[in-house]
Predict the structure.
Amino acid sequence: MSAVSVFGLSKSFGHLRVLKDIHLPIETGDFTVLLGPSGCGKSTLLNAIAGLEDTDAGIVEIDGADVTHREPSKRGIAMVFQSYALYPTMSVRKNLSFGLRVRSVPRQEVARRVHWAAKLLQIDELLDRKPSQLSGGQRQRVAIGRALVQQAKVFLFDEPLSNLDAKLRTEMRVELKRLHKDLGATIVYVTHDQIEAMTLATRIAVMRAGRIEQYATPDDLYEEPATLFVAAFVGSPAMNFMPGRLISSTVHIGSARLPLNGYRFRSSPMNGQEVVLGIRPEHVQLAPEGQLEAETLFMEPMGADTLGWFQFGEHRLSARLVPQVARGLSGTVRLSLLADHVSLFDPSTEARL
Amino acid sequence: MTTARRNVRIGRIGLYTLLVWICLFFSIPLLVVISTSLKTSDEVRTFSIFTLPAAPSLAAWIKAWSSACTGLNCGGVRVGFLNSVRILIPSVFVSVMAGAVTGYALSHWRIRGANAIMLLLLICAFIPYQVILYPLVKTFSTIGIYSSLPCIIAVHVIFGLPVMSLLFRNFYAGLPEELVKAARIDGAGFWRIFAFVMLPMSVNILIVATILQTTGIWNDYLLGLIFAGRDNMPMTAQLNAIATTSTGVIEYNVNTAAALLTALPPLIVYFVSGRYFVRGITAGAVKG
Ligand SMILES: Nc1ncnc2c1ncn2[C@@H]1O[C@H](COP(=O)(O)OP(=O)(O)OP(=O)(O)O)[C@@H](O)[C@H]1O
Ligand SMILES: [Mg+2]
């Protein structure tokens, strides 16, 4: 059974259509990430699931029950906000227990759950402090703790890590992953950081301008992006794109010929169809017998490997190279594109072919 | 460098000169009033208003407080003081709390037509109240509470509400809306969020609002005169009655003492809470 199901959800602010016919089934125990650029409607969708935002059309089900018109507090959810939204006048302990006290949970049970969450998140030392006396990472853990004590069926996170510095963010990412594993809870998580999405998610919904472009596992998303937008948005360094023409299972790009052996077409393309070929930098390799002849432009060292930039005709191509190889590189080189890993898109519909 | 410093010094001198003049301008009348209130009637009559009292005495103050006459009534301004307190406390409490709830509702809850209500409040805040006095009198007469304590309290609340609501709305609009969302998910409703989340954060703005309302309502004369009824005349109205009572000689020393007694409560409020006042106003302006 689905933990959360969204059917045909739409929402407008005045004339601005922020969510357009969203369908999103989320299985119990999933870590689903809503990924997309700023302003695409991620928070609005999360708020709609939480019941904090009225919707124009569509149904939200949680744990099999239609909750479309239920109060947020009656949906069996807990939420962590981007700004943490800790109650500034209450101590950490009061912050954690507020929701339980509102629901008249017995005193002992409140104390037990607060203790449990504080232990789990290692904030038991901080229980008597005010939020203003905490560091960013500590506040963030309190915010998560406030959600945990609810023992909800579904946890909603709205960019909980975006206010942290890079190091703390990496640490918290690991913590979150561990928490998900330990609790086995269903999590819906909003972010515009694709690394966060790739590392945390069991499934990712990529959103763009109020629509879900693709809803798939991180691997599928990375290997077989369903649209040009997803292909460009996911992956760092970004995918290379080159326009070409498909003639009898071979892509012609300028003078280069790239035979496609075993490409899994989703539709049957016409012979001579225009295509956009996408290939990730790690699938572009230096090879003496490569299909493309390109000029070396410059190298971007990234630590473990180096991103090499090359000019092929009027296109720029990047390739992930071993640093030792990259260091000595200059002049004209031959590049080979791994045919097993290319993606083809229809330039007019932007959909995967 | 040195010219710059000299310019700064000249600027300072100019500034302080101006401040001294302003102080004198405002304090000389005050000093005259204080000195007059400490004189005897004879002294007031024979010497200029600028001579200091020969033997300062509080006799005039005592008379003003407990036995000065308004018409046939000789109970001093004490009666008016008690009336003012009885008007003040409920009026301030109700108008401040009502303003806080309205401001909170307008800023953090999606209310149909919230913008229209805001505009209306803004307009109300600037309507000269003389314009609506007569309709108000009519309305209160019709519902039968005209000229009573509830009537004057209601009037003060009505006239205070627009400004109070705007003040609180602006303060609450500066607080993150995620706080309210978090509390809603925690299961708290409109009133519980107000009482347990918003009010504890509003201490400074509550003090500001209380000061504004306290001084405004205490200093009110016109509304008290019209709506309070004879038995509930506020101190200001009574002060006027004492000063204009025309039997016998005019006792300027008693009148000035009565005036000072009337002005004292707002002054005390300012002295005690000036610090909070400044803090509260900036707290509204700068978030956090
Ligand atoms: N209360 C509102 N009134 C009007 N428009 C709104 C409101 N809230 C959001 N919007 C608009 O809806 C769109 C989606 O907003 P939303 O907050 O869901 O974006 P987001 O994907 O969460 O972006 P971000 O990554 O920046 O948080 C934006 O264009 C935003 O301007
Ligand atoms: Mg957002």
Notes: Chain A touches chain B at residues 47, 50, 52, 54, 71-73, 77-79, 81-83, 85, 87-90, 98-99, 102-103, 146, 150 (CB under 8 Å).
